[in-house]
Amino acid sequence: MAQGLNETHDPARRSFVESANAPDTDFSIQNLPFGVFKPEIGTPRVGVAIGDQIFDVSAAAKSFDGPAAELARDCGISYLNIPMQRGAAAFSALRLALSRLLSVEHGDRGLRKYLIPMASVQLVKPMTIPNFTDFYASVFHATNTGRAFRPDNPLLPNYKYVPVAYHGRASSVIVSGTPFKRPRGQRKGANEAVPSYGPSRNMDFELELGMYIDTPNKLGEPIPVAKAAEHIFGFCLLNDWSARDVQAWEYQPLGPFLGKNFATTVSPWVVTAEALAPFRIAAFARPSGDPAPLPHLSDAEDQAHGGLDITLEASILTEAMRRAGIAPQRLTQTNFSKVYWTVAQMIAHHTSNGCDLMRGDLIGSGTISGPEKSSWGSLLELTARGSEPIALPSGEKRGFIEDGDEIIFRGFAEKPGFARIGFGECRAIMLPAD
Amino acid sequence: MAQGLNETHDPARRSFVESANAPDTDFSIQNLPFGVFKPEIGTPRVGVAIGDQIFDVSAAAKSFDGPAAELARDCGISYLNIPMQRGAAAFSALRLALSRLLSVEHGDRGLRKYLIPMASVQLVKPMTIPNFTDFYASVFHATNTGRAFRPDNPLLPNYKYVPVAYHGRASSVIVSGTPFKRPRGQRKGANEAVPSYGPSRNMDFELELGMYIDTPNKLGEPIPVAKAAEHIFGFCLLNDWSARDVQAWEYQPLGPFLGKNFATTVSPWVVTAEALAPFRIAAFARPSGDPAPLPHLSDAEDQAHGGLDITLEASILTEAMRRAGIAPQRLTQTNFSKVYWTVAQMIAHHTSNGCDLMRGDLIGSGTISGPEKSSWGSLLELTARGSEPIALPSGEKRGFIEDGDEIIFRGFAEKPGFARIGFGECRAIMLPAD
To answer: What is the predicted pLDDT for the residue at A148?
Structure first.
């Protein structure tokens, strides 16, 4: 078997939970992502997605042995940070045990009582997030956005050396399905002499991948790029909602602040790094002429296998579309393998000055845009800052997000010879400002 | 009595703890700041500074009645977040009770057994800090720094409308007395064709005031400027250490990141907003010609009393000075009343888009520079980016901080007719890079 692959990746394995065997399910028996659900009775606790069901891991703890059993018992809590203390090996053991228990070969044998229909419960934020950092890892996005904010100088000289990032706001990270209000803020239109305070006029999404840290490093002790993967628990979808007019007026010289920190939406299921192992590919190939990464960001193994082939999509569903029963309209489809910096390079850079990462920290990739327009990850890019609105099947047009619009992200990894690994959805409706 | 003043501010009150009556003490009986100490026996817990002693509040809980007693019992924990849930009224009641109990009039009566010499214990970080935000509230600092980074364009057009801020790193906030290593990072000298990764060459301090939030707001619900003061628990000294060369290379377009997040030092004692009530003064008078703050940042009461007359100083003690027994050399003395934006304006701005503040959040003022060179709050400013080094009594010179240097902040409020309210020290030694 290829490096990092094990029995849990076997595409021949099927589950006695029939919905997990559908070719288009996000939650095949090879995926087994972790999340937190709020049951009808009892307190929120950690579960594992399987097809259209949630496996109640802590309730089933006596079905496991050794480290898997210890971890399963820890899953009776409302956030993943405590179970994550058990480490990657325990999660690997639990995934292997689940893969066997939920298989057709093992069969039900009383396990169905631990299955809860996903549609019947609320999924909550899976993690207590001590710190949120957002990168800027797509060179296509950086160039597109740079052009909008700085036409003469789109890509700054540091971009190809520095995996640029900023600190986001941890408090306002919310889970998929939570509506948020259009934020107010200071903005100054091109024809306005002075700024005013009011509802943002240029609301946007940013299509990103999020990563959660499991193993902390000590303050003052950088994580080498070759060790960075050992600190990543798993991945989610992340919408870095942006009030572009507020951002444009505020962002110099200290970066984005109120243009971003009113809300950041994450998907509820955390797809483990292990489940994504079959989809590791070579890192993004830098165009010839680009500088090589500095030595502390360079690792041959990371260059060979540090990319991740994950498809990401964003769709829109307006209020008029909902009323007319029209399906969401896809706005873009992109791929995480197009980012300029690998996940390991982001972690190594973040800690290269000794900054300490904490268990549960969330790291966003930055908007994932590919080279073609059909793969750009924000409306700022797709509509040329609102000037080229997108036509919708309802007859509406959208330059930016309007009140009542829902933005829906999906993500998945697919490859011949392997089962589909999906992320579920990351969606939210923007309500009007008060 | 003037607005906001009560019996605890009475300058005639003296303590049976003799050291609290010294005219130059930071911790008079009128101050009673809260902090967390690690006793020789038992777990870290909340205490109150009085002269050179710490009053062990939870151990003495039976000395109090009502809300003060409830709060005192909560103080047997290693961070202030839990006691802060009791609210400002409970802290006010406890301060009043302490003011009476520790007075000469009340006398010892068995209370001395709750006093622990401050020098005999370790003071730890007083708060679990969910989020750290750093403002840029001194127009003199913004102009000086802007000149260093952007000679043609020092003060950006948004400055007089937007209380500019960015998200800092909560994980790397450390308490006074904790050494930190000179960080490594990417930097590119003016004469270098490409950047390299290595120890920062331009290490600096930033002299700031920090504020802690006690009362959270809900996501989506801004805090009006007139209500902002009700969300502030108290104040500390804050050193926003800065690697200027790393910052200069990385900061565009998303702001400071690795140039700052290796360490931020806070003083251990949190001086309550109540203790500082006598030192409220008019907000900074905007020069004529400056725009008025937008309506959502304007409040007549805040303009009349939203300033705080707090003197802040930074000193340096090099290794050579320590060895030779030379006292620390003062580098600057400034005053918080010189900041362009009031604390209430910072809070109102921060939440004006609905961003939620959490209990224990730390908000830095940004470097507090006054108009004269003697009051500038960083070496970047004081030494013109290292080009005009400062002579020290040891015969050394300093353009930036060198290995083994200790930077020491002090802060205090003084006014005829009132007792001195001090902050204690915020100090740390920079160790060599690994």
So the answer is: 75
State the pairing for strand pair B180-181/A280-281.
Answer: unpaired
Residue B303 has φ and ψ, to the nearest 5°, of -65, -35
Interface of B with A in 265-324 (CB under 8 A): 291, 294-296
Options A141, A231, A305, A350, the catalytic residue: A141
Q: What is the pLDDT of residue B1?
A: 40
Residues B346-361, mean pLDDT to the nearest whole number? 98
Give residue-wise pLDDT tens across range A37-89.
999 888 999 999 999 999 999 999 999 999 999 999 999 999 999 999 999 99
Secondary structure string (H, E, C) spanning A61-117 = HHHCCHHHHHHHHHCCCCCCHHHHCCCHHHHHHHHHHHHHHCECCCCCCCHHHHEEE
Task: Look at residues A203, A204, A422, A407 and name the one whose alpha carbon lies nearest to residue A317.
Answer: A407
Nearest-neighbour CA in chain B from A201: distance (Å): 13
**Does B242 touch chain A if contact means CB atoms closer than 8 Å?**
no
Residue B166 scores a pLDDT above 50:
yes
A251 touches B at CB < 8 Å:
yes
Q: What is the pLDDT of residue A32?
A: 98
Give contacts of A 125-144 with B, CB under 8 A.
130-131, 136
Average pLDDT, chain A: 97
B77 Cβ contact list (under 8 Å, min separation 6): B45, B46, B58, B83
Phi, psi (5° rounding) for residue A69? -70, -40
Is the distance from CB of A283 to CB of A301 less than 8 angstroms? no
Alpha-carbon gap, residue B217 to A250, rounded angstroms: 22
Which amino acid is present at A40?
Answer: E
Cα(B179)–Cα(B201) distance, integer angstroms: 18
Q: Which of A188, A288, A173, A319 has its CA nearest to residue A245?
A: A188
d(CA A91, CA A94) in angstroms, rounded, equals: 5
Instruction: Tell me which residue in A262, A296, A352 faces B355 most closely, judged by beta carbons.
Output: A262
Q: Which CATH superfamily is domain A132-431 in?
A: Fumarylacetoacetase-like, C-terminal domain (3.90.850.10)
Amino acid identity, position A172: S
- Strand-pair partners of A239: A207, A265
State the CB neighbour count (10 A cutoff) for residue B433.
16
Whether the Cβ atoms of residue B275 and residue B31 lie closer than 8 Å to each other: yes
Task: Give Cα B159 distance to the centre of its chain.
Answer: 22
Which one is catalytic: B9, B141, B231, B349? B141
Ramachandran quadrant class, A206 (left: phi over 0; alpha: psi -120 to 50; beta: rest): beta
Fold of A7-124: SH3 type barrels. (2.30.30)
Contacts of residue A202, defined as CB under 8 A and 6 or more positions apart, other chains included, come to A187, A243, A244, A245, A380, A385, A386, A400
Q: How confident is the model at residue A1 (pLDDT cuts 50, 70, 90)?
A: very low
Residue B218 near chain A (CB below 8 Å) = no
pLDDT tens-digit profile of A132-143? 999 999 999 999
C-beta of residue A396 within 8 angstroms of C-beta of residue A221: no
Question: What token pair was written down for B209?
Answer: 């005031």
Instruction: Give the ipTM.
Output: 0.97
Place of tokens 């690998």: A342
Alpha-carbon distance of A50 to A268, in angstroms, equals: 14
Report the distance separating Cα B15 and Cα B115, nearest Å. 13
- How is chain B split into domains, by residue range? 7-124, 132-431
* Pairing relationship of beta strands A232-239 and A271-272 according to DSSP bridges: antiparallel
How close are the terminal C-alpha atoms of chain B, in Å?
57
pLDDT for the residue A3: 67
Percent of chain A with pLDDT over 90: 96
Q: Is B141 a catalytic site residue?
A: yes
Q: How many CB atoms lie within 10 A of CB B396?
A: 17
